[in-house]
Amino acid sequence: MFWDKISPLYDLFENVYNGKVYSGTGKKVAEFIDPSDEVLECACGTGAISMYIAQKCRKLVATDCASGMLRQASKKCRKYSNVLFKKADITNIKCKDSQFDKVVAGNVIHLLPEPEKALRELERVVKPGGKVIIPTYINMSKGTGTAAVKVITLLGADFKRQFDLDSYKQFFADMRYTEVEYYVVDGRMPCAIAVITKRV
User: pTM for the whole thing?
Assistant: First the structure.
């Protein structure tokens, strides 16, 4: 699996190419986390966002489909006793309805053949009034980040779509999400964070 193979080098690539956004995204996501929160993170990767969530929440269940990514994330978060790592599929989350206060899925929507299925699952497992937080890399202008996308694609990543901020907003609008706020962490390849509040 591509993500298992790249997991030991992923942080190095991100920090060299896009370090400001890589760390800034985790810090921004953590702003939406409260001390009493039980949080689910899907597609946690190497734990770049997990390490910031763990500092804020009561409990974090961090999941990914790649064992290699989970190993890296576990190392990064070993000093936090409130984190549980599990292998899981974002389109078939083995959790009961309305279980979590916040659900996070970072930089995965653009890789999924059926992102709508994943979003419905994320919405299902968050409590009414809770938040689904979805950071995704975007291209703010033509040429921004295309070199990085080409390199990762050559290595074997399969991008199903790419977004700029307008098309990212349209993606959620097309899925009938209306309670959405957007934040952008700016840098070489910016990250747009969609924050969806589940209706009570």
Answer: 0.87
